[in-house]
Amino acid sequence: MDGVRHSRIACGRLVPPWGVTAAIVFLAGCAPKPTPNPGELQRLAMRYLTAGATFRDNPVVRAQAIEALEQTEGERAAVWFREAIRDEHPGVRFAACMALGEIRHKPSEAAIRACLNDPDPNVRVAAMFALRRLGDPGFVREFGEIVRTHPDANVRRNAVLALGRLEEPGALALLKKAREDKDDSVQLQALEAMALLGDKHAIQQLIYYANGGLGDRQAFALGTLGRTKDPRCMDILRYSLRQATHLESRLAAARSLGLMGSDEGFALALVSLNWNSPNPKLTDDPPANQIMRIRTMAAFALGAIGKPDALEPLRQHMEDPSDPRLQVATATAILQITRKQLAGPFEEPVPGNPPHPPK
Fold it and tell me: What's the mean pLDDT in 80-85?
C-alpha cells in the first residue's frame, strides 16, 4: 500500500504525472457556480466520491474514496465495496474488505472468504477482520501470530488496526503485546486501538503525548482523543487548539473538538482550507504534499464540526481539480455536514455504475 505515485490534475481532468490521459474525468468545472442547496450538494459530493472509487490513475484515491463511502454511506455503498474487492491494487482490496466488515455485509461473505487466499498479507488480514465481524469465531491464532512474528511492520500494524476495529475487549491482551513492538508505528496503532476500546491507561498515555509529544506523535494523540469521547480530553484539546506549535496539531485538536460537539476550531479549520505556505527545504516532504495534508486535515475538521457555513468553501475545493485526494476529503466533509442538515442518510440509492462525466 506504500510507494504509490500520486497524480496531479489539470483543469477538469485527472492527469498522472507521466502525462498519459486519465481514464476518469472528474465532475469539476472551471467556471464559478452558485452554491447548490444541501440536497443537491449532497448528491454532487456523492458523485465525486463514487468517481474517486473508480479513478484508475491512483489507487490511493480509490482507497480513500472507499473508506470515505464506508464512513458516510455505510451499507448503501456496498456495491462499490464489492467492486473494489477485486481491484488490481492490494491497498484498495484492503480498504474494501475492511469496509464490508465494518458494515457486516453478509451477502459478500463468499467473496470475503476468497480473500483469505489473496497474495497480499494485508488483504488477508482485512478478510479475517471482516469474517469475524460476520460471526466467524476463528482467526484468533492467526491474528496472534501476525502481531507477534510477521516480518513486515506494515502487516503487523494493519493487524493491530483490525483488532481495534473488531471492538472485542478480548483483543486487549494482544494489543498490549503490540505496544512492545520494535516499530514505532505499530506501537502507536496499538495505543490508538486500546484507547478506542476504553483502556484508561492508553487514554492517559495519549493525553501525555498531546501535552508534550513531538510533532507527529502529538498530532496523532490529539486526533485520537476526540474519538474516545472521554470528557477528560476537553481541556487539553482546547489548550492545544490555541497553543500547539504545529498547525497539524492544532487542526487535529479542532477535529477532535468537533467530534466531541464543539465548534471552537471552526475558524482555524476554515482559514486552513486555503493554506499555502509550505517549507521548500523539506526534501522528504514536497510542498504539494504539505499543502494537501494541511488542507485535508482542515476539511476533516470542518466535516467533524458540521457547520453549514463551511459548505461553500468546501464545494469550491471539491470542484477544484488541483489534487484528487483533497477532492475526496472535501466531498466527505460535505456529506458529513449535509447529512446532519437533512437529518438522514443520502436520499438516493447509490448507483450501480460509476457516474459518467458530463459531455
Answer: 97
